[in-house]
Amino acid sequence: MKSIRVIAIACLLGAVSLPEGVKARQPIGELDLNAYCASQGFERSELSRERVGYQAAYGNWFCIRRDSKKMINLEKACQWQYPKYELFAWPLDPDDAYTWRCFESINPVNQR
Question: What is the radius of gyration, based on Cα positions, of the chain?
Fold first, then answer.
């Protein structure tokens, strides 16, 4: 519950910039990337470089198995983990790969 409050406060203060044209209704939660990778036939999730650094949140998460790896589509991971919601994935800090969260989106044209 604490992380949800922190995300909500960050959104209200403008600390989290969202994709243009999208408004976040509320953060739904964090991602379990190991479970997502297992559902895709992989052994685990893994970073390809350091956790923290310039733009470390982007292009850094991969599903791994002994003979191959595949970059994780974090939007698809959100949709897999929270199938009842229309979601998008967004990092709270673009320089920290562990800050990805799933947000329920409000389509500006077709608000539910």
Answer: 14
